[in-house]
Amino acid sequence: MTAYDVHKTVAEVTERIRERSRKSREVYLERLADRAAKGPKRSTLSCGNLAHGFAACGPRDKAALKGDVVPNLGIITAYNDMLSAHQPFETFPGLIKQAAREAGGVAQVAGGVPAMCDGVTQGQAGMELSLFSRDVIAMAAAVGLSHDMFDAAVYLGVCDKIVPGLVIAALTFGHLPAVFIPAGPMPSGLPNDEKARIRQLYAEGKVGREELLEAESASYHSPGTCTFYGTANSNQMLMEIMGLHMPGASFVNPNTPLRDALTREAAKRALAITALGNEFTPAGEMIDERSIVNGVIGLHATGGSTNHTIHLIAMAAAAGIKLTWPDISDLSDVTPLLARVYPNGLADVNHFHAAGGLGFMIRELASGGMLHRDVRTVFGQGLEPYMVEAKLDGDTVARSPAPELSGDEKVLSPISRPFQPNGGLKMLAGNLGKAVIKISAVKPERHVIEAPAVIFHSQEELLEAFRKGELEKDFVAVIRFQGPKANGMPELHKLTPPLGVLQDRGYKVALVTDGRMSGASGKVPSAIHVTPEALDGGPIGKVRAGDIVRVDAENGTLAVVTDAEDFEVREPATADLTGNAFGVGRELFGTFRAVAGRADAGASAFG
């Protein structure tokens, strides 16, 4: 294999995605070409339209926007100052506008999108809005861009559903160039293993709320993304490896000179790749099947978020690309795990970045034939410019090749010595339907669990059983009616500490659910996103207490070990879900629940 060959499985999966998507992709690209052929949209606006569009601008920007020769950059921002990851965006529009003027263009805030934090809503009723907030974000961004005032757009977002929603919007407006601008992770706080220890002690009743809050506050302590490798930081990795970030931008801390320089550079680059210049790079053409496959490979190589088995499918679909769970699973089987970041290790993303970060990892994966090098990016042609680390040279960004050696092989390994030969994200299938399991943090002796089922219809029911001492045994917790149609598919992180306690006490424990566990899925084997969900007639609704359930990550199976004929004719269980239909805005999301697609199709309201 030469340095530029692509691994056989990577090539085969890419080709079958391309063939499967051929018709839908052609229709999508034809629509983009038609839009792009019409030129800058301001030229089609009436004088009244245009006057409204620049009425609030200063004299210089207003004069520039009266013609069609100066590019206008639309800013879509997820800023709010409650969420640590998005608070730094407060100052970004000013930086972007100044950079745009320096580059001979104009920038306007086109619109804001909501940004909710799963860390705040975890275990609360508001979490039932979380998954659908992705589609709301896509629609909110579309409203901002619908004014047709812009030649390119930059997207300011970081966390769980925000980036996937913004990508869906960027690809829906794929005739425009799109650059994503991150805010960066907060500096390291309380070590992750200590945080996990305090959480488990709290679950056992050995420390109180005061001690728990002190530990949590020491972990989540300043502006920036949470430092564990959950969905938010998986998002940032994806944006860089898919070529939507500036090279080296993902994990630079906020409120630093380098972070500001990267933001200014991103704005200038977005203006440079509009149709008014010589490097026109519309997002919908740039992101293709190879870009999506590169994203999946990056997810596996870093032990990334299980949420992206849903989000990547929805993101790809926005560009007419049909990605499936089997595609993701087959790529996992051949992708070496190169990173150990909490919860798959003790390090955080700052340690990962310091050890060589994405520049090192992208180079290693490419050298092993695991990535398509010939993709287009917002920086130009090919992935080579992303095999770097970004530094500061005065007030501007300078880049040097990524280090030849990892700075810490306990955190980031070369491809010649991976932590394990596969990505640890597997698909399960059997008489309980299809599911996803993440085993990169699960000990090998727990990859197969066979035990009696204990049935719950909420995570609160399981917590109550744990408090009463009713779970001191081997069991598989089956938590159903947690899918998109039932209650919006919330993450079930309240389950992690008690199940971890029981596992540490020596019991064989596993979780089976049609809900989510996200990027923080940890040491307990968890078959999640079970599809079809219980409310959609899925066989998970037929499981009875005491049934022997087998969760087998080695052979990729999820099944009730019972007489097949008996299981087939069983009546599925029902649940009273009226309590999920109102409160904290849930009544406004009834339409989303009614039309939500299956998890393996992206759980989207967009068909």
UniProtKB/TrEMBL annotation:
Q: What is its EC number?
A: 4.2.1.12
Pathway stated in the Swiss-Prot or TrEMBL entry: Carbohydrate metabolism; Entner-Doudoroff pathway
Record's GO cellular component terms: cytosol
Instruction: Show the InterPro entries listed in the entry.
Output: 6-phosphgluc_deHydtase (IPR004786), Dihydro-acid_dehy_C (IPR042096), DiOHA_6PGluconate_deHydtase_CS (IPR020558), ILV_EDD_C (IPR056740), ILV_EDD_N (IPR000581), IlvD/EDD_N (IPR037237)
Biological process per Gene Ontology, one example term? Entner-Doudoroff pathway through 6-phosphogluconate
Assigned keywords, A-Z: 4Fe-4S, Carbohydrate metabolism, Gluconate utilization, Iron, Iron-sulfur, Lyase, Metal-binding
Q: Which residues bind [4Fe-4S] cluster?
A: C159, C226
The segment(s) forming the Dihydroxy-acid/6-phosphogluconate dehydratase N-terminal domain are 71-384
Q: Is Metal-binding among the key words of this record?
A: yes
Q: Which residues form the signal peptide?
A: none
Instruction: Give the catalysed reaction(s), semicolon-separated.
Output: 6-phospho-D-gluconate = 2-dehydro-3-deoxy-6-phospho-D-gluconate + H2O
Domain Dihydroxy-acid/6-phosphogluconate dehydratase C-terminal as annotated: residue spans: 410-603
Q: Which GO terms describe its molecular function?
A: 4 iron, 4 sulfur cluster binding; metal ion binding; phosphogluconate dehydratase activity
Concerning Pfam families, the annotation shows:
ILV_EDD_C, ILVD_EDD_N
Cofactors per UniProt?
[4Fe-4S] cluster
For this chain's record, the cofactor binding note is: Binds 1 [4Fe-4S] cluster.
Annotated function? Catalyzes the dehydration of 6-phospho-D-gluconate to 2-dehydro-3-deoxy-6-phospho-D-gluconate.
Similarity comment = Belongs to the IlvD/Edd family.
Against NCBIfam families, the record matches this protein to: edd (TIGR01196)
Name of the featured protein: Phosphogluconate dehydratase
| Organism, as annotated | Oricola cellulosilytica
Q: Which gene encodes it?
A: edd
